[in-house]
Write a structure and sequence with these properties.
Strand content: 15-25%
Strand order of the largest sheet: 1-3-4-2-5-6-7
Order of helices and strands: HEEHEEHEHEHEH
Oligomer: single chain
Number of domains: 1
Bound molecules: guanosine-5'-diphosphate
CATH architecture: 3-Layer(aba) Sandwich
CATH superfamily: P-loop containing nucleotide triphosphate hydrolases
Helix content: 25-40%
Number of helices: 6
Length: 221
């Protein structure tokens, strides 16, 4: 059989690997406020980052099929913690604190930047950061700042457009191509941007597939 003829089967296989990875309940592990408290084992980390209100907790909950797993970034006390979740003992899903909150005190912003930069520099297990962008608003200055840090530290990141259900098809295509144009020259940016809606459960299968490719293989247990 040629590669082309094999393709649908390969795709179905990949989708199944993504489904399997999230078939078991995802477990909250801990909230980390300092890097000395990071888990100390061989599991790879995959992070979710984005501005407050971008839809990060909704996406994590939809991805894991668990309501209430991740909490909104404006929950008091949640702005300074990295939240670790164990996915099938094959991967840590890390919820980075939301940023770009208009009324955030300067000391909070400084603390966020310090923690995030130290984490990006020091975490050898970090495989990818998913940077969430609200499809209605596109890339903002604070997103550019994060992408700058990721480029500097050579951590691969991939953009995910959220809340795409709020846009008509044409507008969604327009923001996707405008966003693509903004990252072409960014060295650590993954070229493929994903489009999701937690509300309508769109793009989740592809996201699970992408994450499964970064996880430890299931037979490594
Ligand atoms: P976070 O602060 O980034 O964790 O954002 P949340 O997940 O708490 O979402 C912020 C707001 O956006 C909430 O009112 C959500 O109901 C809403 N929201 C999140 N995802 C979607 C989505 O896919 N579609 C729509 N229409 N609204 C969404």
């Amino acid at each position: 059989m040629t590669d082309r003829q094999n393709r649908p089967e390969i795709e179905a296989n990949k989708i199944e690997l993504g489904r399997q990875l999230f078939a078991r309940p995802v477990q909250f592990v801990k909230s980390v406020v300092g890097l000395e408290h990071l888990p100390n084992d061989a599991l790879p980390d995959v992070c979710f980052a984005g501005r407050s209100n971008v839809g990060k907790s909704s996406l994590i909950n939809a991805l894991c099929n668990q309501k209430g797993l991740a909490r909104a970034s404006n929950t008091p006390g949640r702005t300074r913690e990295l939240n670790y979740f164990n996915v099938s003992d094959r991967l840590y899903l890390v919820d980075l604190p939301g940023y770009g909150y208009a009324r955030a005190p300067k000391t909070d912003i400084a603390r966020w930047t310090k923690l995030t930069r130290a984490f990006l520099r020091g975490r050898a297990n970090l495989r990818r950061v998913f940077v969430l962008i609200d499809a209605r608003h596109g890339i903002k200055v604070s997103d550019e700042e994060l992408m700058g840090m990721l480029d500097e530290t050579a951590v691969t990141y991939q953009l995910i457009l959220t809340k795409t259900d709020k846009l008509k098809k044409r507008a969604a295509q327009k923001i996707l191509s405008a966003t693509q144009d903004r990252i072409v020259k960014r060295p650590a940016a993954h070229p493929d941007i994903m489009s999701t809606s937690s509300e309508k459960k769109l793009g989740l299968e592809l996201l699970r597939t992408e994450i499964a490719a970064l996880a430890l293989p299931s037979n490594a247990l």
